[in-house]
Amino acid sequence: MALPAWLTSRKRSATARSVLAGEAAAEAARKQEQEAAARAAEREGHEAAEEAEFPVVGDVRGAAFFDLDNTVMQGAALFHFGRGLYKRKFFRKRELTRFAWQQAYFRLAGSENADHMQDARESALSIVKGHRVHELMAIGEEIYDEYMAGRIWPGTRALAQAHLDAGQKVWLVTAAPVETATIIARRLGLTGALGTVAESVGGIYTGRLVGEPLHGPAKAEAVRALAAAEGLALERCAAYSDSANDIPMLSLVGHPYAINPDSRLRAHAREMGWRLRDYRTGRKAAKVGIPAAAGVGALAGGAAAAVAVQRRRR
């Protein structure tokens, strides 16, 4: 896919494929935002134009970036998507067993395994090859309702809403397919999503990726590229993740948060003085000093306070 002039590669610590994956994800996210804005303007007509004259409250040069799997949603979006495709007879029971085993490992370990995630991605690419993009998007809407909607962490959702209420844009940043991530972001009322971009020609998936999966350093590259395009100041931005694999993305912003952290990220966050939140069990919450009985309202209030602190530090 052709990339616009503002996506220029430069020497970075990430690999060339990470840069390509990040830039492709950023371009896809920008396209989503532009299309959503066009649809909103068409629906609202003159009323939308009148409202646009009013200034946005909050720091418009700040934004929030949320990892998806085990940060916003319990489990991995790719595995839930695979379950939905199996239900629709896209593949056989043997492949579903592999998806289920990987999901069980993910839930028990609470962290990503590179080999498992790579295997899942390759399986997904082979399954969607030859299918039309719009067909998978329509199915993805149904799968969200069936397998994902009930697995959103209320605490993390409240954090995202606090940024939106402050007038900031909020993006998901995930190794999941950008189409799946876009559906989830829209359903949650977020700005958009940065995700792995699968190649398509004439609206049909080829079974190949653009660059590499949006994972690890590639996520940081995507955030960096989108921030440049949007005119964001990264030191004013926040990022949230559960995985040590996302330390490059978390280190890129001025306000990093460890959400439901794995052991490596928890240790790193404590060493760096990053904020911690755990929305899993009372036992795990106690380990990081978060009141297990805290309600969603209190969490939202705390998130709003965090945004206010960011404003005062500008």
UniProtKB/TrEMBL annotation:
Residues 30-49 have a biased composition (Basic and acidic residues). The keyword Metal-binding applies. GO terms for molecular function: hydrolase activity; metal ion binding. Residues 30-52 are annotated as: Disordered. Gene3D superfamilies: HAD superfamily/HAD-like (3.40.50.1000), SG protein - dephosphorylation function (1.20.1440.100). The chain crosses the membrane at residues 288-309. InterPro entries: HAD-like_SerB (IPR050582), HAD-like_sf (IPR036412), HAD_hydro_SerB1 (IPR006385), HAD_sf (IPR023214). SUPFAM superfamilies: HAD-like. Keywords: Hydrolase, Magnesium, Membrane, Metal-binding, Transmembrane, Transmembrane helix. Belongs to the HAD-like hydrolase superfamily. SerB family. PANTHER family: PHOSPHOSERINE PHOSPHATASE, PHOSPHOSERINE PHOSPHATASE SERB1. This is HAD-IB family hydrolase.
